[in-house]
Amino acid sequence: MMKKILSILQYVAVFCALGAMSAACNEDKFLEVSNPEAIGEGNFPSNISQVERFLATAYGSSHCYMFLGNQWPGYLPYALDHTLDFQHREDDWNQMASCRVTSSTAKLGTGWDGLAVVIHNTNTALEAILNYRESGYMKDEEASLVDVYEGEVRFLRCMYWWWFQEMFGQPDADGVGIPLLTHSVDSYAASQVGRAKSGDVYNTMITELNTAIGLLARQSGSKTHADQWAAKGLLAKVYWALEDYTDCASVCLDIIKNSGKSLVSFKHYYNMYNGDASYEHPSESLFEIENTLGTSGQGYGYWNPGTSMSMFYSQKVINTAGARKSVSYCNQYAHDRNITRFGYTEPAPLHFLATSKTEPDSEMKTLSGDTWYYLPQSYLDAAKAMQQRSVDGKAVYATDPDPRFFVGIFFPYINYSKDTSNGKEDWPIGQNYGSGDWWTTGSGNSIDEYAFSTRKYQFIEGALQAHGMLSSPENTYFMRLPEIYLLYAQCIKDSDPATALEYVNKVHRRAYGQPVDAKWTNDYASLSARTKTADPTDHLANDPLLYEVWAELFAEMRWWDYVRHYKLGPEESAFYKTVRGPSTDGSTEIVWNDRIYTMPIPDSEFTKNSNPEMVQTPGY
Q1: Which of 155, 158, 394, 555 has the fewest CB atoms below 10 angstroms from its CB?
Q2: Residue finishing a domain among 415, 443, 474
């Protein structure tokens, strides 16, 4: 059914989204039409098919151009948690990454508006379902199905509230949270909602999720729809946000013992992020956003049932002429400090660059004039072998990086992508420097910089634009079982450290291809054992629990939750140190300020919302 929903989305979501953005500007009723077969005020809705259109919109809103359809990851969490660094320097990306964000930061407003649209659409869908149940149109045999649809939409609304709260609400329960909009907006007055307390936001989510769980217990099972375990996973995280570790642990244990979920092999985990449908919806996924490849001629954002978020951090390939070729914007790449945090300690590849007047024995070589530029084959072979050992579960623990390095990061010159603008031909991926020859740096980079592209949620079938669309099919994971294991460990680490350590080690073992439930010689010996990060001053160097959270969830838009919750801002800023910014030496120092745990309300919101409780986040 989800593929049908995604096709309906192309036509429905754009109108719902535009309705959300215009509703606060007039008193017109939402989607008032005269066609009796269409959804209108007089028959709102009148059959189960119309109900499913609203369900489609609740799911499909995640594809909003200002949200997961394009801009959210690269604009907000990837900047704040330093998943990424930036080629383009003088931009508000660097404001966020260097802790200089202000209420006028443009990309911040984009994120706010996107989630406002998403939540509006979900509220509208929930009202439609409730109205259908009371309208007299619902058939008796549809009652259970309608209950399930209601449970799905209540979960989805909480998921969107969660993203909104984790960016724009203060982490402490007595702080200011998000505007808790629980109804659709069909007038200017209805849009005037102030900010709730963060604790009230979380407690509302707990009530909603418990309702959803009861309704979803009747769900017969669908990989592409939310079920009770998706709702329970989010419920656990809300309890954790409230520091209710007893209830969080109880829900986590319920999922662990009763959901039937299990960790997949490392090789399966390695293949889950790049759009191969045979690896998606794995046994460890509690919920994921379904994406499909757009068709020729479609645009991006609301018009497509996929995501174009990899446009920003897409890889550069090396063509046969030896020039870097951008497969999309290629403006972002993994922050260099992430490379060594995974335990990779070799110098950046261009340190191994060699030249020759005769053709070298190397796969990575280009003739320019009368000179060959090349990477020694011994270097390439060693890098390939290192990656293959990790994928095969045979990484050498003492010397190889954490195998999740190769899940989250493309290794240039040995990993390949397609350039479909030049036929179905594989090209080696290069470092994400500026344009020019592969053996040079450029754009202010130095030979010491890695500039490796991220691999998770990366489109590897070439240039999106060359496909005639800007939408790709990588599913986006909202929650997976490893995070539940690690949440459980966090909740019981003081009361039962031995069990907590075992759940940390289960995640650790899977990363190295080991049996999850069997003791291993390279298990962490304690909750303060040394981790793989190369820097002994890294605050994760002797914190296996949080290191496993970071490594397992790298580039999945969830590390920021933990930075906020555990107030890790000063330590993270000290670790990452700089971002590439507008300064003359090519870097901008990260200067931590506790206000950064919560983003400011965009200036534009105060011109639209006069509610006295719509207050600015303290510190801005």
Answers
A1: 394
A2: 474
